[in-house]
Specification:
alpha+beta; elongated; three-stranded antiparallel sheet
């Protein structure tokens, strides 16, 4: 579920929870949305809701990913892929 917060400068922050990491901490993705000039408050609200739904769908499909340090990625790859798919000598 996306959370929407209006910032003082007129933009909106959209936050989507992407589950929990290996360390047990919650992983969130953020997106900013700036309404076009001349939009009515009702148009802005509808568009912010639409942007939140699209962003949430992108996160669920895995198109939006968090920045991961190479060390963390390599350790995860060895545990989840290499042990399962490679021969012991290759591992």
């Amino acid at each position: 579920m996306a959370t929407i917060r209006k910032r003082p400068n007129g933009t909106y922050e959209i936050k989507v929870s992407c589950g929990y990491g290996v360390d047990g901490k919650q992983r969130n993705q953020y997106k900013s949305y700036k309404p076009e000039p001349g939009m009515t408050p009702r148009q802005i609200e509808k568009e912010v809701q639409r942007q939140a739904i699209l962003f949430e769908e992108d996160c669920k499909r895995g198109q939006i990913t968090a920045a991961v340090k190479f060390e963390t990625f390599a350790e995860q790859w060895f545990e989840e892929y290499a042990k399962v798919n490679l021969r012991p000598t290759s591992y």
